[in-house]
Amino acid sequence: MEDLEAQEMEKLNRRNHMKFRTELGEDMFKNKYASTEYETWDDKAHSIVNSVCGDFNGTKNNLMEKSDRDQLVQYISDFKFMPGGRYIYYANREARFYNNCYLLRLEEDSREDWAGVTQRAMSCLMTGGGIGVDISRARPSGRILKRTGGVASGPIPLLYTLNEVGRNVMQGGSRRSALYGSMNWQHEDAHTLLKAKNWHDHKIGDTNLAELKKLDFNWPAPLDMMNVSLNYDDAWLKDPMNQTFKDNVRQAMMTGEPGFSFNFGDKQNETLRNACTEITSEDDSDVCNLGSVNLANIKTIQEFKEVVSLASKFLVCGLIRAQLPYEKVAKVRMQNSRIGLGLMGMHEWLLKRNYKYEMTDELKQWMREYERESKRSADAHCDRLFLNSPKGYRAIAPTGTISILAGTTSGVEPIYAVAYRRRYLTDGTRWKHKFVIDGTAEALIEQGIKPDQIESSIDLAEDVERRVKFQFELQKYVDHAISSTINLPAWGTDLNGEHTVDKYASIIAKYAHGLRGLTVYPDGARGGQPITAVPYEEAHAKRGVIYEDNSEEQCLSGVCGI
User: Fold this and answer.
1) DSSP-derived pairing of the beta strands 286-294 and 81-83
2) Which end of the chain has fewer surrounding CB within 10 Å, N or C?
3) For the residues 96-102, what does the mean pLDDT come to?
């Protein structure tokens, strides 16, 4: 009997091994997404489609034709369409918290709504969804409170409160919380938010907090669970190179935050963003579900059109099947029917065609199909299911974990580096690292492409305008936003320092009218940075060897990895 079980397990491992492109992807599936130790990726594909679009739990209420469901299973099995991680995790589970994100707003500056937005945030996080909160309606700090005679604290303490909620609430009981906070650029407390995450200004004993975070990712710090940005509206366009904007640019180039949210014209009220900022809305308690088409695995534009069509239908089904945290979310969802079909593997798609990381005529053709077919298919399926047509159809997310499962480049991001050192925790207390060759890069190298011919984020850090322009060109086809991070050299280097602030500010201002948001990351700006670029030759020579970091760089808080 034991021999038979061992044989079956060996067969299962072979089936999974044949599916996953990288060992990291296979391990992630086993440890994070597989419902049982015997589940294969093919099994998971069937479970996802049945749970979301099929005869879920014996209801005999299919939301999609069988032929479409069968084809969709195949697309997921072949990593051509990847539903958001929440779909993958909750397939075959009793709970159905498929939504990736919720968008919240402080509606009025009252004790009741401070408590209300905190409660709403907690409810959303407990379902596994990330949250974004706009606090622009809070009174500036120092204003006299007529009712009590006290003084307003301003909006920043609300972000601190939500940060602690995120620190102590595990999303869906399974993962670290994802939060985002935003404020209008003209708010009187914007200058405070600008420096709220400059941990270099905070001391713990004789060591600044930024250095402690580098040693221990989990060391508590102000807003360490939350990304922040300033919202820029039509008023900013009258004087884009104002001091607040330039201060924002300087702080971002130094620490990575705050980011930039752009809302102009008919989008001016869409200040609400999800945790990764790719979803936009003007309605409190709006919600979105995500999925991404993997360009890297699709060879023809006709097949791409077919995948986009079924993927859009899938997300519409998710509007119906997903459980929601409270009543207002259900009301807003019914009103807006918001979906976010994205793309991943874009850089691999470009590399396979020997294109640079920039817009090409062929890519424009594919993007036009993406724009047309996502709307056509989603609208038709909404009509069939008696739903309102979506307020938004397309959003490009970072696709961190699902791109690892698929073994391709994340979202529209370029390859970070051909080779890198990955830092990680083994037992929750001790840091180790190993050298890794990027899976996409390795496949190209095996085809005869030299490592130095593969353009990466590290290379593009020397040409920031080309990087921004590419996002600007892509945004024309996306009605929500694009989550993409522009990598920069470390602050204080030749390419990033006080002498480059005006240059970078001018570049961002030049393209801002066609962007929805922008994020940058200077190398080494955050503690716990998991990967660091290294020369290909070094990674190739040291590949497969696990190294232990220096003893002084071990977990200081005692809660690393928890």
Assistant:
1) antiparallel
2) N
3) 92
